[in-house]
Known about the structure:
- By secondary structure, the chain is an alpha+beta fold.
- The protein is built from 14 helices and 30 strands.
- The chain folds into two domains: 75-419, Regulator of chromosome condensation 1/beta-lactamase-inhibitor protein II (Methylamine Dehydrogenase, Chain H); 428-443 and 487-598, Potassium Channel Kv1.1, Chain A (2-Layer Sandwich).
- Helices cover 21% and strands 27% of the residues.
- Residues 1-17 form the signal peptide.
- RCC repeats lie at residues 112-163, 165-217, 218-270, 271-322, 323-375.
Amino acid sequence: xxxxxxxxxxxxxxxxxxxxxxxxxxxxxxxxxxxxxxxxxxxxxxxxxxxxxxxxxxxxxxxxxxxxxxxxxxxxxxxxxxxxxxxxxxxxxxxxxxxxxxxxxxxxxxxxxxxxxxxxxxxxxxxxxxxxxxxxxxxxxxxxxxxxxxxxxxxxxxxxxxxxxxxxxxxxxxxxxxxxxxxxxxxxxxxxxxxxxxxxxxxxxxxxxxxxxxxxxxxxxxxxxxxxxxxxxxxxxxxxxxxxxxxxxxxxxxxxxxxxxxxxxxxxxxxxxxxxxxxxxxxxxxxxxxxxxxxxxxxxxxxxxxxxxxxxxxxxxxxxxxxxxxxxxxxxxxxxxxxxxxxxxxxxxxxxxxxxxxxxxxxxxxxxxxxxxxxxxxxxxxxxxxxxxxxxxxxxxxxxxxxxxxxxxxxxxxxxxxxxxxxxxxxxxxxxxxxxxxxxxxxxxxxxxxxxxxxxxxxxxxxxxxxxxxxxxxxxxxxxxxxxxxxxxxxxxxxxxxxxxxxxxxxxxxxxxxxxxxxxxxxxxxxxxxxxxxxxxxxxxxxxxxxxxxxxxxxxxxxxxxxxxxxxxxxxxxxxxxxxxxxxxxxxxxxxxxxxxxxxxxx
Length: 603
């Protein structure tokens, strides 16, 4: 099962060599939904240097090559994944939920197979047809290619970059945002080659109906809808194929890109930020609200070295190398986190009072939600959160910013392509599950029906009051290496011990009766409720009266009521079973009397 876990602490990332981000890469920078997957070198390889003055980082490796991100988000927090079986979920290496209603999904398996499912608006699933699908469909054309970056627009249209530097596009194309020179819908992934031959794309970003691509040499290409100058060509004519964004970026090495709905932003290697496109709400941070047809530097961030930048629908956030957070643009829902709803035409610092530095920021052009994570692992959210306007950063219980978008964004899209690389890392719960009945690490054995079950005293004491008393109150068993159990069967007792390690039960209803007996004896109320649930799911005409007798015997009132109603509802069939006539007289008499009072024999 995939469980929540914090994003790797970016504190490790803040090691600078001559002002540059060194081999540990920090810039989480997820532009829009782009997945930049951080590669982290070993701690031993880090050399510490005195930090250089801000904005003198020198040449750095392109951002998308420096950020292999490993996280363990529970993707079932996005409802579309809830229909998938555990085995299917465990096969997922990368995933993205997108679309105007968060109704589409693309995911990549550990075998680099690409699957999609969902509503398929504007052919955005790339399956070759316009049919929606609730079952995952494989995109054979993309399978086997390692994905390094993915982003989506509002149409939606999809951009996907591979490890080989290839760029693929599909979906809505009304404004040539697929970059193929036409406005024909892209029903399946197509290689974007125009103007990008011999170019290696490392990162992509989508606005509402325009597209950006970043190459490994730090060049930015743009195409698509250009009514506000978001392509950066110097005009407002739509751009049908990728065109290099030059002007102020001509001699700059860009390390990251992001898009708002109709605006574009780029960070260059020395930490400067440039913006172009629509600026009616100040989302370019230039100090005015005039549209910008070519890139213009944000002077409001002068003297600061920006590591990560993200854009919401019409607002932006920037994170500096000192862990400072700046926000600007529209503020209708409080998405700037300033404590009010006033737009900001220039960057303003927020969360300055927080003791722990900011290490990651999150936003997405599909939403008005913002999030940030601190060095200590605290996750804050603000802006439009499930319909509410949160005007100041609100501390959540989440361990990663992705959970904010799963639970509170509207729509509940992913703000980046998630990468769920587990490798050899196991969570505490996974480690416990793995070590259950392991002779190598166990310090105690139970013998049941001549079979051994290997366990750990410490775990039993932590998880069960019965064992806590046994091992702390000088019981005879405390001194034994093997404890004999003769009151319960092997399947029942093993299931009980396994429950203490996993919180799960895997037993047929008949054995669950024995486990219910054990749970009653050991005063394990939660286990008792789980047993009752299993028994309810397994009730049949043949076993109904036996289960009713067990519920009475173990004082399981809820189960007793359930079984009684089932027997009454199927009275004729139940009274013809062997179990009905094998029950002791008192219970049989009590059942008949109670059923009579309920009017079961009126007919």
